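Dear support,

We are seeing what looks like truncated structure output for some complexes. This example has two components. We would appreciate it if you could run it in full and send us the complete token output so we can diff it against ours.
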Amino acid sequence: MTIRMLLLPVLFLVVFASVRAELDADELMKQSHLALYYAGDDGRTDVTMTIVNKRGKERLREFTMLRLDNEEGGDQKYYTYFRKPSDVSRLTFMVHKSAEANDKRWIYVPSVDLVRPISADDKASSFVNSHFTYEDVSGRHWSEDNHAIVGDSTVDGVPVVVVESTPVEDLSSFTTRRTYIDTSTYLPLREHYYDGDGTLIRVFTAETIETVSDIPTITVRKIEDVQKGGHTIVAFTGIEYNLGIGDDIFTERYLKAPPREYIGR
Amino acid sequence: MKQGARVLLLVIVMAGSISADPYIDGFLQALYGANVSKANPTDNDQTVSETRFQLRFEEIGSRAEMFTRIDFVGDNADSTEFDIEIREAFLRARLGSFDFKIGRQILTWGTGDLIFINDLFAKDYRSFFVGRDDQYLKAPQTAIRAEWYAGPADLTVVWTPSFEPNRLPNGRTLSYFDPLSGTFVGDRPLPTKEPGNSFQESELAVRLARRVGPFAVAGYFYTGFYKNPVGLDPTDPTSPYVYPRLRVYGASLRGTALGGIVWVEGGYYESRDDRTGDNPFIQNSTAAALVGYERQLFENLTVNLQWQGEQILDYETYSLQQQQGGQFARDELAHLVTSRVTRLLYDELIMLSGFVFWSPSDEDIYARASIAYDYSDELTVAVGANLFHGEQPVTQFARFALNDNFWLKLTYGF
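Here is the complete output from our reference environment:
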């Protein structure tokens, strides 16, 4: 038996294994995406967002978010009611997130009783001046990237699988991303974003994980802009899942007059 | 607003805020503006010099909620008196598929960006022209709004018992052109006569709206009066300017298309005191349409463009009347082009904003520009300018041509 003949099945195995690994990576990213963005069928949370710029100056945002999953891993609706700062208090914001088409976004400014749609072609733009992008808030669909498992590791003693993802279509916001996925909860504990030169540009960290109604939930998350400096910390409180939030909540009617049963004051 | 109604509203507000633990927030603001035109006939070089304290009270009950927005304001440029303006004081309740909003409130609908065809709710151009916040372009109305959400289209009915006119430059801090005297006036308000308080003189606005694919489609109806004093009563020399009767029928469409937002709106203005166009003292009926498009060109730069056309009906009669009176005659089809540019800089803390209204047919232009910096969550500093120009002093913006001004504003929110 020649070396070549020996190598052939090995090569075959390698190819087969890598295909299997890729399938696993896709499945893993899907599970992770569902765990992070599609927990329960719907949910509400109060959010405190602390934005710290590179000079250490802090800004605070407080809002309440509602979410409804129309389809697991597919269309979703988001409703946001702002409390602070004062100049945006009572302002409401709604997103109809579509797995296929562009998201639709509307804003309601109560001081002028004005509902208006806002153009939403840039998912990488900042959400309320923070280091979180719209995509960080509502999720970048796993099918938009190619994924490969690159190894096992631990984050703070928790075993994780490391997945490397590259966007299917070129992006200006990042070239590759490494996700450190907790193998028991599928939650991403870290995400490292790199540019084309392989330089680390952004880091996502799951700071605190709590179990709410049997659903493991990242209740404190942080995004750090490694290049420019500055970070944003988001803390979730008052989380509730499976409230039975109706589809009609995500319409102009409720944009103008908030559903107090979920929003509270 | 009538003094009695004001006191009553204030009592309601106080009662509401005492009864439980209301949520209170608001802002403190200083705004200074200077007129830059030497020819301006106003007796003050300041367009505004005010301190404003806005308080917002909110109370949410299980069945209804109450919201109040009161401004305590002292404007040295306009008056030595301290003023209390109740911008909003309403009760809101949801009853099944009905939503009600009753009381003093701000109302807006339609698709235009700062141009309005079917939105016949009161505007405050005095505030708009001196640099007050965008929210002050809308003047409050005391009204009942009822919305019904169970039909094939969402129905909104707004009844305003007492006519609420637009607030236009009144010769105090901002001058205006008076076509009767043929001069720019800076020492007295335009002598107007408002409609009375009878049921027949109330305002009714109706909208039917629904979603069709990616578009929000709406139909509108309004019956009331022109919101500006565009009519003349030649029998009354003391207050000859009047608000003629008006009905408006219109429709609009808005949605995402062409990589941005697209909107189209049209309306037929039926001048009910001059249906045939024969009366030279009353505005003819008109038909108006607008088209707009907005998109984010790149991150933090958004641009929009609008065109509005307004056609004067019974034009021959109109142009003959204007010629005989030696007055400027508008083109049969008047064009207005507008554009807004918004640029965010420095982690979106600085906002540069520009808005231009340009009418090639009326040959006038109005440009607004501002820079606002969010120094902190609480403190915002802004500067801006308002510039007017026109060839014929009677046109929409040329009337205010001597009011070029710049302003500085500091706001502390809490």
